[in-house]
Amino acid sequence: MESAGKKRIYQFIFVGPAVLFFTLILVIPFFMSIYYSFTEWNGVSTTVTWIGTDNYKKIFFHDPDYYKAFVFTFRYAIVGVLLTNLVGFLLALLLTQALKLKNLLRTIFFMPNVIGGLLLGFIWSFIFVKGFASVGELTGLAFFNLPWLGDAPTAFWGIVIVTVWKGAGYVMVIYIAGLSNVPKDMIEAARIDGATKLQMLYKITIPLIMPSITVCLFLTLSWGFKVFDLIVSLTKGGPFNSTESVSLNIYQEAFRNNALGLGSAKAVIFFLIVALITVIQVTITKKREVES
Amino acid sequence: METSKRYTARLFSLEILGILLAIIFLVPFYFVLTNSFKPFAELLANTTSLPKAFSFHNYTEVWKIMNFPKVFLNSLIITVASNAGLVIISSMAAYRMVRNNTRLNQILFLLFVSAMIIPFESIMIPLVKLAGNIGFLNHIWGVVICYFGFGVSLNLFLYHGFVKSIPVEVEEAAIVDGCSIFGVFWRIVFPLLKPVTVTIILLNSLWIWNDFLLPLLIISGPETRTIPLATYSFFGQYMKQWDLALAALTLGVLPIILFFLGMQKHIIEGITAGSVKG
């Protein structure tokens, strides 16, 4: 048996370092963030003035840009989630067939995901600006001759295209795992009973892979909400701030405008919304576990 | 059902569909790669054709301007050191928390797990201030310590789940034979954790190698830049110089692509395992 003294030493050596770094890097800044959100502070001067809820009032009543950033982020996240999951699911359906090139195709579909958002964005900004123009000249298709990234709609859809290209392979991997757990005899029985392919998909496959769907939906939703790198390299938030995400707005407020108090208040609001989404996710997942 | 495994016409058409989709997925790589070998004038004239001559001129230029060996080394040091530290601190903590399941450790575990909700953006402002106060700014090890703090929650959570599945009897026998708790952990438990250690290292590596915002805030000098930062500042200076920019992108993307192709089996398994646990 360990003596009480030894227990304390072991606790200190084994758990101590994790707690130390966690506290220093995460816990302290988290509470500082809440504190700064009630202050006015430019980051340079030593005076941090307590101004109560003024920052929050300003955000709610006099900050159309932050509101606009939220609208963009919500719209982008929802469209991105739906399309990424749709494409990823279809790719998974394809790759669970007995294809000869299955493994090679899986590698190719997954590959964009390992590249960071910043470099991906730069790659695609070349494709949109130069590549699409050349393809447009070659084929004459109107789609390629649009002013890509040059106006608000094409900038929005450009970002969505890159998002789907990056994320579809990742959710595909999760869907493949889910699909390969669907019992073969169940599908076989339904086939013998004369169910159509579509019926089998809706009545058997989709209900059975619901856990994978939940995981993928919330994973992509959380990516969508935190989008930063991709926007920086594709559009820098433009044209006319039309593609400024919440995280980019917070970054600009804090480190470009040097309004660290106001930026912190925005960051706290951002945290509350992300936390709310996560709590909903956990509740739904837990409920499913009870049912099954 | 042997009959359903036959290679039918339907499967063949699906195979073709898959290949077409794969080509669409690969087209951006084709554009970047082929155009990175072209001189500027040729690139402006036509981006779809193959280069007339494969010249490495763009690459040698970029290699010098970006100081590529240096930034590559910086990225590598940060990724390796962060991984090493994270694996050590989170496996040790998870082990102790499972084996010594006190009220305090239960509360700590809950705190670690709930902190996973906090997005980086919502604490980055005070983090920069704090990093400045304790002298972390513009140091590679400053970035590494930040990754310790941001990665420890998920890593500890994954280890915690795994340690629970290891039977305690072996450890008890070893202690009776006079093995110290450190011996038990490093010689018996840690080797058993290998599958989850591999998953953790791969997930951490993809995240840290590609991360942009944290190094952007902590590092500013050219001596300490990582690959994403160097690419970012390169694009700031050579925005219209697509010939050089594309060579820079290819150089930046190449290491992680090679890493993925070498480790893809483990990476895909890791993602599957991680998602099943939720």
From TrEMBL, chain A:
Membrane topology for this entry?
A: Multi-pass membrane protein
Q: Where is the chain membrane-spanning?
A: 12-36, 74-96, 108-135, 155-179, 200-225, 267-284
Q: Which UniProt keywords apply?
A: Cell membrane, Membrane, Transmembrane, Transmembrane helix, Transport
What residues does the ABC transmembrane type-1 domain cover? Answer: 70-281
Q: State if Transmembrane is listed as a keyword.
A: yes
PANTHER family with a match to the protein in the record: ABC TRANSPORTER PERMEASE PROTEIN, INNER MEMBRANE ABC TRANSPORTER PERMEASE PROTEIN YCJO
Q: Which family does it belong to?
A: Belongs to the binding-protein-dependent transport system permease family.
Q: What is this protein called?
A: Raffinose/stachyose/melibiose transport system permease protein
TrEMBL record, chain B:
Q: Where is the ABC transmembrane type-1 domain?
A: 72-263
The organism's superkingdom is given as: Bacteria
Membrane topology listed for this record: Multi-pass membrane protein
Alphabetized InterPro entries for the sequence: MetI-like (IPR000515), MetI-like_sf (IPR035906)
User: Where are the bilayer-spanning segments?
Assistant: 12-33, 71-95, 107-128, 140-162, 242-263
Which protein family is it in? Belongs to the binding-protein-dependent transport system permease family.
The protein's name in its UniProt record: Carbohydrate ABC transporter membrane protein 2 (CUT1 family)
> Which organism was this protein described from?
Cohnella lupini
Localization recorded for this chain is: Cell membrane
GO CC term (a single one): plasma membrane
Please name the GO terms of the biological process aspect recorded for this protein, alphabetically: transmembrane transport
Q: Does the keyword NAD apply?
A: no
